Amino acid sequence: MNEKEPVFLGKALYVDNINHYLYCETVLKPVDSVLEENECLMGRWDIRAVLSRIFRSALQKMIGTITHISTDDTVAALTFDDGPDPRFTPRLLEILESYGTKAAFFMVGENANRYPELVRRVAQAGHAIGNHSWDHTSFRLIAGRERRAQIRACESAIAPYGQKLFRPPYGHQSIASRLDALWLGYQVVTWNVIAYDWLDRDADRLVYQIVSKIQPGSVILFHDALHDIIEDNYADREPMLEAVNMLLERLGDHFRLVTIPELFQHGHPQRQNWYMKADVDFLNSLRVQEGEARRYAHGNRCQ
Question: I need a surface site. Which of 106, 177, 222, 284 has the fewest CB within 10 A?
Answer without folding.
Answer: 284
